[in-house]
Amino acid sequence: MANLAPTREGDVTLEGAFRLENGAELRSPTIHYAVYGELNPRCDNAVLVCHALSGSARVPDWWPQLFPGVLDTARYCVIGANVIGSCYGSTGPLSPDPATGEPYGGGFPLVSIRDMVRAQALVLDRLGVPRLHSVIGGSIGGMQALQWAVDYPDRVERAIAIGAAPLSAMGLALSHVQRQAIRLDPAWRAGRYGPDDPPVAGLALARAIAMCSYKSAELFRRRFARRPDRSGEDPCCSLAERFDIAGYLDHQGEKFIARFDANSYLVLSKAMDTFDLARGYDSESDALRRIRARVLLIGISSDWLFPPQEVRELAHRIRTAGAPCEYTELKSSHGHDGFLADADLLAPFLTAAIWRPTVSAVPRPHLAPAASL
Amino acid sequence: MANLAPTREGDVTLEGAFRLENGAELRSPTIHYAVYGELNPRCDNAVLVCHALSGSARVPDWWPQLFPGVLDTARYCVIGANVIGSCYGSTGPLSPDPATGEPYGGGFPLVSIRDMVRAQALVLDRLGVPRLHSVIGGSIGGMQALQWAVDYPDRVERAIAIGAAPLSAMGLALSHVQRQAIRLDPAWRAGRYGPDDPPVAGLALARAIAMCSYKSAELFRRRFARRPDRSGEDPCCSLAERFDIAGYLDHQGEKFIARFDANSYLVLSKAMDTFDLARGYDSESDALRRIRARVLLIGISSDWLFPPQEVRELAHRIRTAGAPCEYTELKSSHGHDGFLADADLLAPFLTAAIWRPTVSAVPRPHLAPAASL
Lengths: 373, 373
Hints:
The structure is a homodimer.
Chain A: E1 8-13, E2 17-19, E3 25-27, E4 30-36, E5 46-50, H1 59-62, E6 77-81, H2 113-127, E7 134-138, H3 140-151, E8 158-162, H4 169-184, H5 200-214, H6 217-223, H7 244-257, H8 262-274, H9 284-289, E9 294-300, H10 308-320, E10 325-330, H11 338-341, H12 343-355
Parallel strand pairs in A: 5-6, 5-7, 7-8, 8-9, 9-10
Antiparallel strand pairs in A: 1-4, 2-3, 4-6
Helix pairs in contact in A: 2-3, 4-5, 4-8, 5-7
């Protein structure tokens, strides 16, 4: 269903100064959105789907396996909104800064997950969507789903986050070296590159490093082992010749530079790093106590960027704070990328979580994986 | 004992053409060596210690914890030899190419672990060392120890390799992105940089990426967590400000560029990738069948670059081939770096392995960790 066309698609301008968590302001940013299906008269069928780092408002483009089985547009009004800082239609580093008329470029401020979610809430106001039947996302999209549950407890009935938790030190490390790769590219020019000379080599390397963290050692071993590059290179012959895994990483980098902006990458990667539900509240448990949505956290068995253990621990903290939260685990060898690559396996979990009622206000005990969902 | 002075230190020139595995030739390369202690009259107390990627012939400089407890120079003649391709005294990319008088630079050929070991064997011939009581190494040094046992079965009585096995696809991936970081630096100039303008930013980033693979997520979590950089930066404030782990990685990179050459890094990193005991023989088991040394493989519990499971599997393959090989595991949270950072904990394993007799030709069953060694 990748070709599912939006019922509505457009831009919402948030007039005036949009103040970010770090104190910077964006003047009248626009948010690109796409809607699939119709809001029902009771306004209780809206499902917001939050995209990951390189996704867009067009949910079926990147999560096609969920249509129509999980996200049945005859039943739900599925909404996607491109995050601030991205390069898929919302205001980001490629957009003109109203103060200068030139693109923000490297001058684009650091945004937070909370900023992204607040912008989405304002967009939903404008679209006449008072509350969300569900908010769903994986990775940085899952962070947004959780932030929604904390910041807008009265507007969210179900929050489902896959492969999302505050990044551990290793995750922060891997993010940092990716951003350093972009900065190392002489074409980056502190973010002031023109449209004809972007830092593609740095961005490609950032993506290659990221792919190592998105996939799993097991998958790489099975798929590439120690085979030489499939184009016929002999890695034992010269420095330049590659193993197959290296050819794969380079190819992933080359594909990525055609569809993403380096400054956007810096902004969104750092936003992911800074995700911390405690910020703006007295403590994480104070934040978690606000949640009234029914929360489902899904860890991915082979995810080493957001290890399932850390997702499970977050679920435990949410329950300890008194909010209803379940944890389950997706068995996938694709690592963090499992929520996209194995979306078929993910679908039954999501269907069960979206379709079930939300009446239970009492925290439920930790459920065993899979079968009970 | 870091200040232990060598009994002898010098260079051996391997006169004539030294033909490498990939077919290239080096003209009269020199190998820098250092000896601690004296060869006894029976010539049966020589211990060759093979250094890792950024080490040198001066073993006590980088493995001080092993002196004098494990490597007692009153008892053993401890020998270190800098590998071909390095920048610590042996012929490498910084050395003048006799054909031009200019440094080899990016024109230095790809060397293999087998090339390194053959050069060491020739050096030992010149030093009058007919056989090795033991050969020991960690990481790429462990690869050399194993290659010694395969290529020179009559010269090696004990081979001890820590955190060494053929790199898995994930390891090859992480090596590749490090090398790409060097190549991304505009100062790299395809390896033809001058001494005053080396690609320090690329080399620093390569080292930062490598540090992620050398250490463990657990260690990073305990040591850095999600704390802001200790110098007072606020990572939530701007793109440039860092978490503490990022400051640590940058610092490791900065320290490294003062002591290592980027072209050497490319050569040695790729040599590590290509380590494969099967090469030059009909199969890996044919190679392993040659071993007559008593072999000890040590995995490091938190090593994710050379996961202990893969070291254990290699030990199993060696035993299956009929060679005596034991496996044990070092409990360390330092990841791959544990063989250096936790050398105190490693020492008892090494002492037991070095001191024990070698009479057993019959493969012994897998030993439980620690106590039995």
